[in-house]
Structure prediction request, 351 residues.
Amino acid sequence: MSSQSPLTTIPGYYARRPGIQIGTQLRHDASEEDILMRLQLGAEWVMTDVPREAEHSADSYQRVVERFASYGLPVYRLANHNVHNMPAVTLALPERDAKIAEYLAYLHHLAAAGIRYATYAHMANGIWSTGTEPIRGGALSRAFHIEQATEGHWVGEVFRSPLSHGRAYSEAELWDNYSYFIRKVVPVAEDLGIRIGIHPDDPPVYTLAGVPRPIFGTFAGYRQALEIADSPNIGMCLCVGCWLEGGAAMGKDVPDTIRYFGGLGKLFKVHFRNVTAPMPEGFVETFLDDGYMDMHRVMQALQEMGYDGAIISDHLPQMAGGRIAAEAFSLGYMRGLLQATQNQAADQPKD
Prediction:
């Protein structure tokens, strides 16, 4: 362990080399071929999960950790989608306290398995899309046009317009509900030594089916939410794609957002994704080099802040060659940007 570099972003994690870490996403039961392919492409960490219907315990999480460790691939995040995007928590539904207790148990299981990071999303009615549309070369990718939006989805659940939960909710209600939740989470996360990165709403900014998205749908919302949490353990999982979806309505662009939250030590993980245009125009998720953001600027901002957490590809297009080809392109592109920005940093004159 002494020969490895400690990650300041996630205390308790150690890396083979310092600096920005390249991660990948794999199922808990990924084939050996898929695992080896990621290693051969230079992946250094894995984001994985345990299915909703499976056993969720310290032992089951430890088995997943040990399986990937046998290939030399450490687990950065292990997801339990039963406690991610919980309407009961976001909207204070009758089962809220039971879901919070389930979430806290999940954190205990992670800690017992040696996992020190968790991504959390706070959406009440899922991720919204309006189908797929063609991008470069005829690849297909998720699209969203707010004037066509009728339903959101989250792991088998469907949330439909005009009111996904029977009535309209106010922003004040959502802030009260978030405060109730995070004040129960903070002492447990701090005691266990787990960092929690909160993912932006997807899409952000706009009210959908009677539920506003004021908290994790803008820069100002994030800033206020993290001030309420008031904990070094509660920060951001920056999905670059979601931030780009919101465009100017987010309040700050992606590089400035990285500088602000990275400067506070609140940036814990980054989803590297690009889209064709911001809302309200509507967007299609696209290849990293084919969207409206110059992703070199994003990597440069991370490098400037000394970020040493994981970056991963996200929402891969449906392309010829399948998911492996899409991941290979994304990992290769990210590694190229990382090397370019590292070289730029090394060439800067020293004071």
Summary: The mean pLDDT is 96. The chain has ten helices and 17 strands. The longest strand covers residues 234-239.
